[in-house]
From TrEMBL:
Record Pfam families: FMN_dh
Obligatory cofactor(s): FMN
Record's protein name: L-lactate oxidase
InterPro entries, A to Z: Aldolase_TIM, Alpha-hydoxy_acid_DH_FMN, FMN-dep_DH, FMN_HAD, FMN_hydac_DH_AS
Organism: Natronobacillus azotifigens
Catalytic center residues: H271 (proton acceptor)
UniProt GO MF annotations: (S)-2-hydroxy-acid oxidase activity; FMN binding
Catalyzed reactions per annotation: 2-hydroxyoctanoate + O2 = 2-oxooctanoate + H2O2; mandelate + O2 = phenylglyoxylate + H2O2; (S)-lactate + O2 = pyruvate + H2O2; a (2S)-2-hydroxycarboxylate + O2 = a 2-oxocarboxylate + H2O2
Main enzyme class: oxidoreductase
Keywords from the named record: Flavoprotein, FMN, Oxidoreductase
SUPFAM superfamilies: FMN-linked oxidoreductases
Domain FMN hydroxy acid dehydrogenase: 7-374
Amino acid sequence: MTILKLEPSSEPFTYEQWEELAKTKLTKGAFDYVQSGSGAEETLIKNREVFSQWDLLPYVLTNVEERDLSTNLLNRKIAAPFLLAPVGFQTVVHPDGERASASSASKLNIPYITSTVSSVALEEVSKIMQDTPHYFQLYWPNDDDVATSLVKRAESVGYDAIVVTVDTPLLGWREKDLHNGYFPMETGAGMANFVSDPVFQAKYNSDDLLEDSELIPVIRNILLKQNLTWEKLAWLREQTSLPILLKGILRADDAAKAVQFGIDAIIVSNHGGRQLDGVRSSLSALPAIVEEVNGEIPVLVDGGIRRGSDIIKAIALGADAVLLGRPYVYGLANGEAGVTDVLKNLLSDLDTSLAIVGIPTIQMIDQSIIEEKR
């Protein structure tokens, strides 16, 4: 009998270790920006705690020798049922920022969602992603001409979908950021998609006299649209042929509206606990939304995903895939290698968990393997 001998590792391995490493590498402002939630962080905490309210019920004596983590999403095959969530301002974490995250995702065939407030222009991210699925996340600017330009730029260079964030008419009350006096754009991060946009430049810097730093208040002023309504989605549909996803759904009736308005998929999300504190956890909102949608469009979920068993629980409750945020951003503190380590660990954890739960493929996960604690 061969006994596997594991050597102690000096490298970060768990989510908690990556978080601690990031804390040592980042400025206090940057770390708190990534780590914190809004208000008293009640929702941030609930996003994690809710996973412990569900037990997995593994099958035994099933053949799991050949396992398959892949799944299909929006008519594309992906390596595993998770995507890298849109996270802006990544150069405050590492100088390579979104370049490193996208490069790691591309090499592992993990979909990547580029943020409106990326520190790297959407065209460059698309070039890095190549044929790996990648979506563009839209914070709908308070200028429809700029919004149209961003969407058309994304479509023209090969993005696979548009993800409209719908839970952010304003930024949440983030007490740590307020205490620190920290907004990452003040460092020069998160401006790339605006300063590279011809419509934005023509309207707000037509003489090309303003330095990028002088455009920060302009971008902040138009970044978020407070009068965005459902009816505006019909207008967006006219601007692009790409699939449209809505990110930030927590109500079943809003999910039903999304179907009625022809949305192609929804993401159940509370913005990682960073918008309205006191809302329910994403996972607790998921079952009712899945029931309401009834398979008409894919349902994704984010918030609190840390390990392979979390992914299995979310899929068992009806999600088609999940989004990963803070874990890969903490890995980014070590550059592309750190992101890759985080993703490879999660893939291995998911593969191991799938085998032990007694199911060989992601598609076979269903409600029979999960039970709410009594």
